[in-house]
Amino acid sequence: MHQPAAPAPLMAFAGSPIDRADHIRVDDAALGQLLDWRARVLVMDGLLPGVDDTGSLIWGSLADVAPEAELVFLGLMDGKAHFAPVPGDGADGPAYAMPRAWQIMQLLSPPDLAIYGGARSLVDWHARHRFCARCGSPTKLVKGGWQRHCDGCGADHFPRTDPVTIMLVEHEDRLLLGRQPRFPPKMYSALAGFVEPGETIEEAVAREIHEEAGVRVRDVRYIASQPWPFPSQLMIGCTSVADDPELTIDTTELEDARWFTRAELEEARAAGEAGTDLLYFPRPFAIAHHLMCWWLDK
Fold first, then answer.
1. What is the DSSP string of 136-160?
2. Going by fewer Cβ within 10 Å, which terminus of the chain is more open, N or C?
3. Segment 108-162, tens digit of pLDDT
4. What is the pLDDT of residues 70-79, one digit of tens each?
5. Do residues 108 and 117 lie in contact, with contact meaning Cβ atoms separated by under 8 Å?
6. Rounded to the nearest 5 degrees, what angle is found at the Cα of 256, between the Cα atoms of 251 and 261?
7. Of 159, 181, 208, at which residue does a domain stop?
8. Per the structure, how many domains does the chain have?
């Protein structure tokens, strides 16, 4: 079966120019040789990056970092090692509760946004995993920050990425979109949910849609993916087809869900940030935007 092409625009947080240099991560001697005056360290205020007047990430040197700070090796770029400092605390709230983060996302170029996204996911994980989940002993950063080790019981812990399905549902040239109470007025988006243990992507798509909207779907297909660093997720974009459009909304998950016609979605996309009387189209940094554009343009 012919599979649809992925959306052409590069997803936000994807396309990092950094070479992750795994061969250096596992070589303590090689990594130590990179800790010199040439090394670049991402300037961060907690989990927020420093941004200059041009909207670019600010990089400092090892001299700017406290001696006791943990540093994560991001990789190599322009022949130099790049690091990010682990903050004292990890994220203490959901992504939508961080307006400053959204502002910064609008400023950064795609490569800088990808660098920041990867760095944020890593350092946030380290800040929240300073103690062993097996025995409770303190853990230490090893392999350049791509692992933590517990001397107490010998356990190793690795940065995790949580898979999340985000999916279009099509019925007779309409799309099913939903809104959560936290969304701005008139903002609707594709339904989404975490993949649970023991599920395939296709099973997770079908379960989440049925749980949230009461709709049974078929013909689930993968379209595109996006790393999402709030805190560290992989958004797996899919499409599906419903035979029966009747909705039974789970109001503990959604405030509302409804079917939108192609004409309504085209009008909202053309309106941009102004939106229409009915709908705001998702912002370009969200994978939902690209999935909906893919559907409209196919």
1. --BEEEEGGGTEEEETTT--EE---
2. N
3. 999 999 999 999 999 999 999 999 999 999 999 999 999 999 999 999 999 999 9
4. 999 999 999 9
5. no
6. 150
7. 159
8. 3
How far, in Å, CA of 97 to CA of 297, rounded? 33
188/246 same-domain check: yes
Q: What is the pLDDT of residues 205-248, one digit of tens each?
A: 999 999 999 999 999 999 999 999 998 999 999 999 999 999 99
Helix, strand, or coil here: 191?
strand
Domain check: are 88 and 13 in the same one? yes
First to last CA, the chain: 16
More confident residue, 89 or 43: 43
Radius of gyration of the chain (CA): 21
Residues 216 and 190 in one domain: yes
Amino acid present at 290:
H
Q: How many residues are recorded in the chain?
A: 298
Three-class secondary structure assignment of 62-128: HHHCCCCCCEEEEEEECCEEEEEECCCCCCCCCHHHCHHHHHHHHHCCHHHHHHHHHHHHHHHHHHC
Q: Among 140, 144, 167, 169, which Cα is nearest to 152's?
A: 140
Per-residue burial over 158-189, b = 16 or more CB atoms within 10 Å of its CB, e = otherwise: ebeeeebbbbbbbbeebbbbbbeeebeeebbb
- Same domain (yes/no): 155, 55: no
Helices 287-297/262-271 angle, 10° precision: 130
Tokens standing for 251? 């109001």
d(CA 167, CA 108): 27
Residue 32: CA atoms inside 13 Å, Cβ hemisphere, count? 3
Q: Coil, helix or strand for 268?
A: helix
2 contacts: CB under 8 Å, gap ≥ 6: none
State both tokens at 59: 């990089």
